[in-house]
Design goal:
Layout: E1 4-5, E2 9-12, H1 24-27, H2 34-37, E3 43-48, E4 51-55, E5 62-66, E6 71-74, H3 80-91, E7 98-102, H4 114-117, E8 124-128, H5 131-141, H6 143-154, E9 162-165, E10 169-171, E11 174-179, E12 182-188, E13 197-201, E14 206-210, H7 231-242, E15 248-251, E16 257-258, H8 260-285, H9 291-297, H10 302-305, H11 317-329, H12 344-357, H13 361-370, H14 374-387, H15 392-406, H16 412-425, H17 441-445, H18 449-454, H19 462-465, E17 469-476, E18 479-488, E19 492-495, E20 504-508, H20 510-517, H21 523-531, E21 536-538, H22 541-549
Parallel strand pairs: 6-7, 7-8, 8-10, 14-15, 17-20
Antiparallel strand pairs: 1-10, 2-9, 3-4, 4-5, 5-6, 11-12, 12-13, 13-14, 15-16, 17-18, 18-19, 20-21
């Protein structure tokens, strides 16, 4: 753990949400259901003894924890005006001094009211150390565009400035604080931001999770513009929170949840929803699909789509698919037509001419190729292929155009991409990721078992596994490693923690399992391995074969 001591003020010129707006702003959101609006009804809620949360005072919540002699505030709302109102209501409960403020992350709707709660002689402000870079970056480097896009995203004007109190105590991974009769554990749990933390109070069985959970599908990408929010880091953080076995879950948006079973249900649905979108996006990307194509494929299974914690009130699943694709692979879709596209103006002019001539797309594509308009030929060929994936004429036009465009490329990467795709379109080259690869036993031997196991979740066939809930434990005679895979209705949760409740337990050597998972063993060979107990299975050998089938098309 690393602790840094510092304090200063700075002017923060952009908001992530909550500002000096009337309450009407929060009661007229046309995109929210009437039921969901109740989540933000203004209320001061006693979560459990000595823990209170102000909901609906602003876009975010603020939480007050009362110790024997002091108060601790977790998040401070987004503006002085909002915070002053809640401060007065908190003071109706207790007049004890505020000795600590905790920022769960860097978004201003959680920081902007700190001035109201802060006392220079008494109050420490705690945060995860990445908050410094994030605040500086937003306040300076990308301030103009974030200001503009935030205003569009939230549908409200933003203030010209806010004063934010900088954290006085920063930590890296975990920090334990003793305040009077209570222990507070602050832990780094990256998710919606990479500076996120949770506040765990063991004595109260209560956890404050910031924006890593709220009653809406996790905002894996904010259209105002954000850094890549790694879905699996978020899932891992939620799994850490699940291990706390909390009885009270207090988010910084929407209302708290109490009851151990209710908390577990909420967190499990949440992490499964995120992992499902992640895994299926990567699964289809590995099959060579573009983001536009993947968006049409990834749909939440019924039990997740109907979960009250996964409704897309804040962002859309399609945005999250695109963000995940971009986070792993980058901006380029893989379609050569997107490599150097026409400008919007050029495309508009050509479409206008085409409409005036009333030309067929196929004729226009051929004309474009003949006239040396190769990029336009590519884009038109794409339209024809979209209408008929087996359109040989369109493929030939696209291939010929790609060959010609390759000649103009100074960058070798671009040149080879055009030429290779042209060969694929003419069935001269096959680099299809769905084609069985030629991995060797020697290559597998050099590959860590951990890497092999980690690849399984993104290969799970969601349609085949959507009705299955079962745990599989894998042990090895040549290693002390243990892995558990929990197939839970379309999601495969991988863990390195042994699970005595696993219905199926597999024992073998690492190399054998690697070759089975890599497809180097056919069904007959696997059956022989099961028959001679090279692969031992508790819970039924057929169950192991069924397990393997869940990862095939």
């Amino acid at each position: 753990m690393k602790i840094l001591i510092s304090f200063f003020f700075f002017t923060f010129l952009v908001s992530c949400g909550d500002q000096n707006q009337s309450n009407e702003t929060f009661s007229s959101d046309q995109g929210l259901s009437q039921e969901h609006k109740k989540e933000f009804k203004k209320d001061l809620i006693e979560v459990t003894e000595d823990i209170y949360v102000g909901v609906g005072y602003g876009l975010a919540n603020s939480i007050m924890i009362e110790t024997e002699n002091s108060l601790v505030i977790v998040d401070t709302l987004g503006s002085v005006e909002r915070a002053e109102e809640l401060y007065q209501d908190f003071r109706e409960i207790s007049e004890k001094p505020i000795v600590a403020i905790v920022y769960t992350h860097n978004h201003l709707d959680h920081l902007g009211g700190a001035t109201v709660f802060y006392n220079e002689n008494e109050t420490e402000i705690y945060a995860q150390e990445n908050i410094i870079y994030n605040l500086d970056n937003i306040a300076t480097t990308i301030r103009p565009i974030i200001f503009q896009r935030s205003a569009r995203q939230f549908g409200i004007p933003l203030p010209e400035e806010e004063i934010v109190h900088q954290a006085t105590i920063l930590f890296d991974d975990e920090l334990t604080i003793e305040i009077d009769n209570l222990t507070f554990v602050l832990a780094h749990v990256p998710g919606e931001t990479d500076d996120h933390l949770y506040v765990w109070i063991p004595k109260k069985k209560a956890v404050m999770v910031g924006d890593n959970f709220y009653r809406s599908f996790a905002n894996l990408y904010a259209i105002r513009g954000t850094k890549f929010r790694n879905p699996m880091e978020w899932v891992d953080s939620l799994d850490k929170i699940r291990l706390l076995n909390a009885e009270h879950l207090v988010p910084s948006h929407s209302r708290p949840i109490s009851g151990k079973e209710n908390v577990e249900k909420a967190l499990t649905d949440y992490r499964d929803g995120i992992q499902f979108v992640h895994d299926q996006t990567i699964r289809y990307a590995n099959k060579g699909l573009t983001p536009d194509e993947i968006v049409q494929k990834v749909k939440l299974p019924k039990h997740l789509a109907e979960s009250p914690y996964l409704q897309p009130f804040y962002g859309s699943i399609s945005s999250y698919v695109r963000s995940t694709f971009s986070g792993y692979i980058g901006w380029f879709s893989g379609n050569i037509s997107d490599l150097h596209p026409l400008t919007v103006e050029e495309r508009a002019k050509k479409l206008e001419v085409m409409a005036q001539r009333q030309t067929k797309i196929s004729d226009e594509a051929q004309n474009a190729l003949d006239n040396g308009e190769y990029q336009w030929a590519l884009e038109l060929a794409d339209m024809l292929i979209a209408l008929d994936a087996n359109n040989t004429q369109a493929k030939n036009i696209k291939a010929a155009a790609a060959d010609q465009l390759a000649k103009f490329q100074l960058a070798s990467n671009d040149y080879y991409f055009y030429k290779t795709v042209a060969g694929e379109l003419r069935n001269e080259i096959d680099v299809n990721p769905s084609t069985p690869n030629s991995v060797t036993s020697e290559q597998l031997q050099a590959t860590p078992m951990k890497a092999i196991m980690k690849s399984l979740p993104v290969n799970l066939n969601a349609d085949k596994s959507v009705e299955i809930t079962k745990k599989y434990e894998f042990r090895f005679i040549d290693s002390e490693e243990v892995y558990t895979i929990h197939i839970r209705k379309g999601v495969a949760q991988l863990s390195k923690i042994p699970d005595s409740s696993a219905e199926v337990k597999v024992i073998t050597d690492q190399q054998t399992l690697k070759e089975v998972f890599a497809g180097l063993k056919n069904v007959a060979a696997i059956s022989l391995l099961l028959a001679n107990n090279t692969i031992e299975v508790e819970g039924g050998k057929l169950e192991f074969l069924k397990f393997l089938g869940l990862f095939t098309d």
